[in-house]
Amino acid sequence: MGVFEAMGAEGEHEQVVFCEDKRAGLRAIIAIHDTTLGPALGGTRMWPYKTEEDALRDVLRLSRGMTYKASAAGLNLGGGKAVILGDPRTDKSEALFRVFGRFVESLNGRYITAEDVGTSVHDMEYIFMETKYVTGVAPAHGGSGDPSPVTALGVFVGMKAGLRAAFGTDSFQGKRVALQGLGNVGRNLLGDLVKAGAKVIVTDVDEERCERARREHGVDVVGVDAIYDVPCDVFSPNALGAVINDNTIPRLKCKVVCGGANNQLAEERHAVALRERGILYCPDYVVNAGGLINVYVEMEGYVRERALRMAEGIGANLERVIKIASEQGITTAAAADRFAEERIQKIGDVKKGFFGGI
Question: Tell me, what DSSP letter sits at residue 43?
Fold first, then answer.
């Protein structure tokens, strides 16, 4: 598949930029999906992709998801994403990130970056040396730092909305949550769930994380594959994407799927498969928008209380999506897309008018 064909297949992207600097060892792709609502904001992922085609496919898919995430969250942002081809454990350097920052700067604000899988606040500080179009830098530099606690809060309030729809109450008392992934978001979400009275069963590929969760919160730990078989009220994916698929859906023993991972459905048809099994799917980009909200607030002058308050609104957004799905007889995944697309269209129409200024 050619580049232009790929751009159309993944949602008619506005711009794709290929970045290379052999001296710094940089190979990267920046994808800008849609800027109707505002500049494209999305993190920079660093990953050892097997092929350049895999990297292109990933950045196109992820940038499209950012457009929908920003719209559904009510933010004046478009969708973008960047990927750096390389192993984050061995290939990072100051020069690499500073060169990448210069590529970001060359886009003059059409794309604003942030941390993502394989990158950190420390990496963002190198990028910040070369461009102002970066968020999530350390508080010492006027940034908001790690957005994970705000992301976790959004997932938590989204989960409460899911409980209300499925059980008629948002209380976690007596509810069992199977939590997959104890990274930054999963770890913070675990704390929120335990505090709310949930019975949590966890798993992670990192045994040390599991042991720490058991020690600090008294939770049960199961194997990485066994998490799909745990009888529970909520299954919460907070690690890799595509975990809701043909193999796992028949094994799920829950009423709600709600987590912080991106692209949880392997394919769109899996939203139908969940609905047929009577499982409420809380669309990932609706409930995991807290991190994006956090860096959006940073762009306007960071006030943590405002970021937390805005993240609390994720529950109401999910309720609207669930209502659309019910009224129109469609999946919640399709309803979330319509919810986001409608706002893009309406705001796009607003911007068509000309009010002087020549």
Answer: P
Query: Is the separation of the CB atoms in 237 and 259 below 8 Å?
Result: yes
Asked if residue 157 and residue 132 are part of one domain, the reply reads no
Residue 132 belongs to what domain range? 3-66+76-137
Check whether 42 has a pLDDT greater than 60: yes
Return d(Cα 21, Cα 100) in angstroms, integer.
Answer: 9
Tokens of residue 310, six digits = 């805005």
Q: At 215, which CATH number?
A: 3.40.50.720
Q: What angle do CA 116, 236, 281 make, to 5 degrees?
A: 100
Tell me: do 322 and 210 sit in the same domain: yes
Is 195 designated active site?
A: no
Q: How many angstroms separate the CA atoms of 136 and 19, rounded?
A: 22
Nearest Cα neighbor of 285 from 75, 143, 110, 109 is: 75
Q: Are residues 119 and 210 in the same domain?
A: no
d(CA 81, CA 180): 25
Overall average pLDDT of the 185-202 stretch:
98
DSSP one-letter code for 237? E
Question: Is residue 212 pLDDT above 90, yes or no?
Answer: yes
Cα–Cα distance, 179 to 310 (Å, whole number):
24
- In the structure, what pLDDT confidence band is assigned to residue 358 with cuts at 50, 70 and 90? very low
Following DSSP, what letter does each residue of 178-233 receive, concatenated?
EEE--SHHHHHHHHHHHHTT-EEEEE-S-HHHHHHHHHHH--EE--TTGGGG-B-S
| CA distance readout (Å), 120 to 1, 109, 146 | 32, 21, 8
Please check whether residue 175 is in contact with residue 233, taking contact to mean a CB–CB distance below 8 angstroms.
Answer: yes
Q: How far apart are CA 53 and CA 60, in angstroms?
A: 11
Q: How far is CA 275 from CA 135, 157, 301, 331, in A?
A: 37, 21, 41, 7
Q: Is the pTM of this model over 0.70?
A: yes
Report pLDDT for 89. 93
Q: Which of 22, 50, 69, 81 is catalytic?
A: 81
Are residue 217 and residue 122 in the same domain, yes or no? no
- 131 CA to centre of own chain: 23
Instruction: Tell which residue, 215, 221, 179, has the closest CA to residue 196.
Output: 179
